[in-house]
Amino acid sequence: MGMTITEKIIAAHSRYDTVKPGDIVDITIDARAARDFGGANVVKNLNDFGLKVDDPEKTLFTFDCNPTGSDQKYAVNQHICRQYARNNGIKVYDINAGIGTHLLMEEGYVWPGSTAVSTDSHANILGAVGAFGQGMGDMDIAAAWNSGRVWFKVPASVKLTLNGTLPEGVTAKDVILNLLRIYGANTLLGYSIELYGDATEQMTLDERITIASMATEMGGIIILFPPTPGIIDYCRARARSPFEPVYADADAKYDITADIDVTTFVPMVSRPGEPHDTVGVKELPVTRIDSAFIGSCTNGRIEDMRMTAAILRGKKVAPGVVLKIVPSTDAIWKQCLDEGLMVVFKDAGALVSNAGCAGCAAGQVGQNGKGEVTISTGNRNFPGKQGQGSVFLASPSVVASSAIAGYITTPDAVPASPLETRYSSEQPLAASAPKMTGTVERPTLIRGRVWLIDRDNIDTDMIFHNRYLAITDIREMGQYALDNLEGYKDFAKRAQAGDLIVAGRNFGSGSSRQQAVDCFVSLGVQAVIARSFGAIYERNAINAAFPVLTCNSLDVIDLKDQDVISVNLLTGEAVNERNGMKTLINPFYDAQYEIYKRGGLLGKV
User: Fold this and answer.
1) Residue 91 forms part of a structural domain
2) Distance CA 326, CA 342 (A)
3) How is the chain split among helix, strand and coil, in percent rounded to 5?
4) Is residue 574 within 8 Å of residue 582, measured between CB atoms?
5) End-to-end alpha-carbon separation of the chain, Å?
6) Domain check: are 252 and 280 in the same one?
7) pTM for the whole thing?
8) Tell me: the pLDDT tens digits for 165-201?
9) Where are the beta strands (DSSP E) in 300-422?
10) pLDDT digits (tens, 9 = 90+) for 233-251
11) Same domain, yes or no, for 347 and 451?
């Protein structure tokens, strides 16, 4: 049996000739990156455990979350990273460089068939060039920096063939939003997705980056494009190592295959709250906006900038609307300058910032206020992710058109006169007072009160919001657990040491932040049981020796909120003490138990 692209890349970086889905293997990592907010935690882990850097030439920091240096806590973290880099001969792509995942391609750290990890949950964007990139928590990155390797569970693969020619006005962003409408946030959870077909073969690198960058929002491990001659030439001109591109074998096995007719695709938007809640722009009622944002790792490329300029040229942003534009790298920023695009942006009334992540990371331009309606080219619109307002996601052409119109629309429907937007004067709520707590020991048989949170797609911003990302002391994290999840904002005040959480599908989707695990450890929560977990969240929990277990349903034991249950982590037996009913859930697998026994990934064997 042949192998898929992902399987071949993983096998080539392991000690095995072949691998199959479900295998857990150690793989060599070609590029190992940490960002400014996660980097300080990586340094802390390395120092706490007395670990050294395996290969400084393959190791780098990227300061893309707060490249404006506008936040004192980010500034502290950046300074920690700079000092560590100086002392260990590590390259820093500082606040003038741009988004780290883009720099990995631009600077030749990755190429078709290579592997890379980063504290950025969108490191799977590297599938655009046929590389295997993964976002991971700071423990994983520390381990990769120290040994040059990480453990990985080989994912099953999906093959999607995009047939036909895209209709006029349908962009790469619309392609991924249409795919999200088909598959949602967890149908392809944990899969490696390969894209084929006439529609993909003609796509440029910029278009492939847009689509690959939203694999995380689909729940996928990665979206991989087989590299074309043009992509190979781009990478060969930059790559720091010789390479041969990797393609799937003709007899490769895919769990799911589908042919998709892209001629039916239309310009789309994601409605506030969930990237997969997509609807055709023309199906949306007239929706006024207060602000617009063009940028992020999804749509900050030069083709996005040109698309934006073509719509803005000779026009003005609607009165009362703020338009913010952020190129993804400094090279693209300079290209905008050379091509005269900056003049177009400024003449239209846009704010242009230096290259970086912008709104997604809560550290640059792009945030909004309570009651504010934003249309954004970003990849996430989880509640609170980009501020306290509402965020729609769309392509650069739709965002630019909407900024001119004052409401969400397409380029072919921009009115002669824009709508004017009026602002709400509501004041933001004050933050709650902090609460300190400690951790508890966790045996292989656990018992505790259940918080039954019967919801799917509880993302990491709901669990531990990005406004707290600069916190590195685990003792401070518990007070913020679930405070961005509607109905559970007082969870930290009501939770007790020993409690368990039972949730739905895709728990922990979204960001790679370790704090979304550590906040529960801080509170003394013993475990999370869910139907499924976001891939990065699951490994963060395992690496922190925090029990996460899966089960299809606990309905068979008539589980109610606040029931007390006992769970055997090794056998999977779960008992509802209220009625004595029993069932089996998925127990620890061997690698998980080994990490749990030694107190975490970085603990002594």
Assistant:
1) yes
2) 11
3) 35, 20, 45
4) yes
5) 36
6) no
7) 0.85
8) 999 999 999 999 999 999 999 999 999 999 999 999 9
9) 322-325, 351-352, 373-376, 390-393
10) 999 999 999 999 999 999 9
11) no
